[in-house]
Amino acid sequence: LGPNGAGKSSVMKILAGTHRSTSGVALVSGYNVDTDRLRVFENLGSCPQFEVFWPNMSVRGHLEYYARLKGISSSKVKFLSRSIAEAVGLGTRQIFNRRAKHLSGGMKRRLSIAISLIGSPKVLLLDEPTTGLDPRTRHDIWDLIKLFNTSKRSIIITTHMMSEADVLCDRIAIMARGNLRVIGTQQRLKDVFGSGYTLSLNIIKGAHEQALDYVKANISKDATIAYAQGRSMRVNLPRDGLNLSDIFRCLINEDALMNGNINAWVLNQSSLEDVFVNVTEKYL
Fold first, then answer.
1. Exposed / middle / buried, residue 131 (Cβ in 10 Å: 0-12, 13-18, 19+)
2. Domain extent at residue 127
3. Are residues 57 and 182 in the same domain?
4. Does 2 map to a domain?
């Protein structure tokens, strides 16, 4: 993750061998991208942000061309191309023989992913794999990525969508101004860089202050009102010093209704978006 201009796509291009680095060393499966480029290509699959197709070449033509480019033996090219096309949902006869210029946006993304999977790479780079796609197609691509996420393959994804990172990734890195600022699991990042918890309350009308007093007295004296309108109220709780079991006991107790006028509640932890803002705001 990272704001525009953070360097996400540049890193992907350097790892893919299409962009020279100005300093440092980049390794893919232990091979230097500058000095062991052929070894890198053997272990790497790359799906760029923008599709690069020949408009008049078919799905089949693209897959067979890249299979030969990857060094797949001639006797296996046709079988491999058809197998990968079927795996990504492009295997029907009509689509398999369709020219690239006649593919929908979702089909083009599937073809890009299929090309990147040729040769069973150990490392797969996906640069903004679902940008510009409708929600239904986006979820289909997510399912496709999950299908090829195995213990023998590392997948690196760049994205601007927090939901995409949350759904697909085991670890999340956040870049800003060309440097990696943080990396960790979603839960770890939320624990360290999140703003805390948000308590959404449904209360008896006009009892905002009474509800806040109850929360301060029983949950955290540092609680603050983030939003209050009618019977809805949202309270910010600090990140540190909270005991979740105590919060639950306090809110399911009859005192919450009797003394706090709280008749329904939902507790949420900081979102990944909160983490992103907190980490990157000082670099903007």
1. middle
2. 8-191
3. yes
4. no
The tokens for 40 are 């890198």
Strand 262-269 and strand 197-203: the pairing is antiparallel
SS3 199: strand
The terminus-to-terminus CA distance of the chain in angstroms comes to: 14
**Same domain flag for 52 and 177:** yes
Beta bridge partners of 32: 27
The residue among 132, 127, 134, 85 whose CA lies nearest residue 110 is: 85
Q: Which alpha helices (DSSP H) does the chain contain, by range?
A: 8-16, 37-43, 59-69, 74-87, 93-96, 105-117, 135-147, 162-168, 186-193, 208-218, 244-252, 254-258, 272-280
Q: pLDDT by residue (tens digit) across 208-239?
A: 889 999 999 999 999 999 888 888 989 989 87
φ/ψ bin of 88: left (φ > 0), alpha (ψ from -120 to 50), beta (otherwise): alpha
Residue 70's contacts (CB-CB under 8 Å, 6 or more residues apart) are 41, 118, 119
Does 243 fall in a domain? yes
CATH number of 258's domain: 3.30.70.1150
- C-alpha 214/C-alpha 191 separation (Å) is 25
Q: Are residues 144 and 265 in the same domain?
A: no
Decide which of 130, 158, 191 is a domain's last residue.
191
Asked if residue 234 and residue 131 are part of one domain, the reply reads no
The span from the CA of 124 to the CA of 32, in Å, is: 16
Tell me the C-alpha distance between 50 and 109, whole Å.
9
Q: Are residues 41 and 160 in the same domain?
A: yes
**Residues 186, 216 within the same domain:** no
Q: Read off the pLDDT of residues 140-178 as tens digits, 9 standing for 90 and up.
A: 899 989 988 988 899 999 999 999 999 999 999 999 999
Rounded Cα–Cα distance for residues 225 and 177 (Å): 34
